[in-house]
Design goal:
Length: 131
């Protein structure tokens, strides 16, 4: 897990760390920093990546451009790492953002219907990663 703890606390992870033991590692850094994220990817060699990082929805109402940029910057950093994956041994078949729930169960064909800058950033990330 990579997190910059905005606005969270590392203490919130104690139950997950206790339950997962050495199966969960946490790196406190900016997920959008491609160089730092690349170091984590090289070390952990993930086969599946879930991009759940973002700025909170309420934050996006006050800072829409930053909320949008955080979502897209993280996705683009992951896409660049994936694009260069052959050189560092990382290969992934699944790199996903987050979609707003319009129907249950969700599938890859789930519609992208953003209504906020937060959701637009997530939709743009999904579109970038699906191209």
């Amino acid at each position: 897990m990579v997190d910059d703890y905005f606005p969270g606390l590392d203490s919130n992870l104690r139950p997950a760390l206790a339950a997962a033991g050495d199966r969960l590692t946490v790196t406190a850094t900016m997920p959008a920093d491609q160089r730092l994220l690349g170091a984590v990817v090289d070390r952990e060699q993930p086969t599946v990546v879930f991009n759940l990082a973002t700025r909170p929805l309420l934050y996006s109402f006050l800072n829409p451009a930053t909320a949008f940029d955080v979502n897209t910057d993280i996705a683009l950093s992951l896409a660049e790492l994936l694009r260069h994956g052959a050189s560092n041994g990382w290969c992934s078949q699944h790199l996903r953002g987050v979609r707003l729930i319009e129907q249950v169960p969700m599938s890859e064909a789930h519609p992208l219907l953003p209504e906020t800058s937060y959701a637009a950033g997530k939709a743009a990330s999904d579109l970038e990663l699906s191209s």
